[in-house]
Amino acid sequence: MSIVSAPIPSVHSIAELRRRVGSWRARGERIGFVPTMGALHEGHFSLVDEARRRADRVVVSVFVNPAQFGPSEDFDKYPRTLEADVEKLASARVDLCFAPSVEDVYPPGFATSVKVGGPAETDLEDRFRPTHFAGVAVVVAKLLNQAAADVAVFGEKDYQQLLIIRRLARDLDISTEIVGAPTLRESDGLAMSSRNIYLSKEERAAAPALYRALTKAARLIGEGEPIGHVMGEAREDVAAAGFAIDYLEARHAETLARIARRQEGPVRLLVAARIGTTRLIDNIAV
User: Fold this and answer.
1) Which of the following is catalytic: 44, 132, 229, 252?
2) Architecture of domain 194-285 in CATH?
3) Longest dimension (CA), the chain
4) C-alpha 228: how far from its chain's center?
């Protein structure tokens, strides 16, 4: 006999979210929070699993944030699958889905922005998406305030974003603990992403070249090969697979500052590249 998961409650207003969370907190329960833009896949559920390990109750938000999309990016075509997402969340033992509208998050007259520096100004994603992290910062600040969770889990796949959110929480005295969860990958190494659905069959076959280049570069740097030479070879490998590279760099894992030698600190390798019309990002530690 198949087991049908019970539906989970979904709320759309900030007031109702706070009422639900407040009732759990009044019972002394610890609250975990996973912000998403929906189109949920196994990578998201690995974040849910991490939140579940750290909390008694787990809230997942589903909100496609217009403020983090540039004018030429894919906001209008970004997949929106709320009904299917809620069904999946029930199977993942999530306690509540928060799915606000754009008007709930940015009501008429909304006029506040959040300027982020530090890891947001390191010539990586910020070079190619100059308004992106300001949009991320304002919505994350609002969501963390609205959910008032003890812990919030973000994926390491968006590594620069993770560092920015940690800095944001520290700088604005947000008490929520920010936890990074490892990137979940397909069997061939491709990092799971909602944008993978845009890949053609041929592009999907070529896409794991990103991870192969990163793992090879990490191994060679770990063996003592010069970073500059290794990263040059990695760029050649990725380009040969059909990608147009935005960046493929070795950076300090804590600050994202440029790094020339492994001895300068912990190293993180980060890549963003386009194949066809799809832009993929990835990163790994050395």
Assistant:
1) 44
2) 2-Layer Sandwich (3.30)
3) 59
4) 28
Three-state secondary structure call for residue 264: helix
Contact 170, 137 (CB under 8 A): no
At 189, the amino acid letter reads G
Q: Name the H helices within the chain.
A: 14-26, 42-54, 82-91, 102-105, 125-128, 132-147, 159-171, 201-206, 209-222, 227-240
Tell me whether residue 252 is one of the annotated catalytic residues.
no
Nearest-CA neighbor of 98 among 82, 110, 114?
Answer: 82
Domain boundaries, the chain: 10-181, 194-285
- Going by their DSSP bridges, the two strands 177-181 and 244-252 should be labelled as unpaired
Complete edge-to-edge strand list for the sheet that includes strand 57-62: 10-11, 96-98, 57-62, 31-36, 151-155, 177-181
Q: Is 246 helix (H, G, I), strand (E, B) or coil?
A: strand
* Residue 177 · residue 152 · CB < 8 Å: yes
Q: Which helix (H) or strand (E) holds 177?
A: strand 177-181
The domain 10-181 having CATH identifier 3.40.50.620: the answer here is yes
Predicted TM-score of the model (pTM): 0.94
Q: What is the per-residue DSSP string for 25-60?
A: HHTT--EEEEEE-S---HHHHHHHHHHHHH-SEEEE
Q: Give the 3-state secondary structure of residue 79.
A: coil
What's the residue count for the chain? 286
Q: Per residue of the chain (286 residues), give pLDDT as tens.
A: 334 456 789 999 999 999 999 999 999 999 999 999 999 999 999 999 999 999 999 999 999 999 999 888 878 888 899 999 999 999 898 999 999 999 999 999 999 999 999 999 999 999 999 999 999 999 999 999 999 999 999 999 999 999 999 999 999 999 999 999 999 999 999 999 989 999 999 999 999 999 999 999 999 999 999 999 999 999 999 999 999 999 999 999 999 999 999 999 999 999 999 999 999 999 999 9
What's phi and psi for 255, nearest 5 deg?
A: -115, -15
